[in-house]
Design goal:
The protein has helices spanning 2-11, 17-30, 34-45, 60-76, 94-102; strands at residues 49-52, 57-59. A two-stranded antiparallel sheet has the order 1-2. The protein contains five helices and two strands, in the order αααββαα. The protein starts with a helix and ends in a 6-residue tail after the last helix.
């Protein structure tokens, strides 16, 4: 189990000094939540395809931007803050993924 975890960490580039720095910086900036994974994937994979649906495909950069916009929308327009629960239903869309990953990564 540990070996497979190390293999995954190696594949996404976190065992190098620069990868470790990216991880620490992202956790410091975002906190520990799913947005950390989105930010790390954005830095690692950039313009590669992240999500493909029936009607569109988006890159990791676009997913990170969409997550940031979704969290701003939830905080400012819907007055949701970290720790509050909400639900968002939309079938087979990248906006669902953005809302799922956003996890309120905003600064207070």
């Amino acid at each position: 189990m540990i070996i497979s975890l190390l293999q995954v960490i190696w594949k996404i580039g976190l065992l190098s000094p620069s990868g470790l720095f990216r991880l620490i910086f992202t956790i410091y900036k975002e906190g520990i939540n799913l947005m950390v994974l989105v930010r790390l994937a954005e830095k690692r994979f950039g313009n590669q395809i992240a999500i493909v649906t029936d009607t569109e495909s988006i890159t990791y950069n676009q997913l990170a931007r969409n997550c940031e916009v979704a969290s701003i929308y939830l905080k400012d327009n819907r007055h949701l803050s970290s720790g509050k629960k909400c639900s968002y239903f939309k079938q087979k869309s990248s906006s669902f993924c953005s809302f799922y990953f956003c996890c309120f990564p905003l600064r207070n």
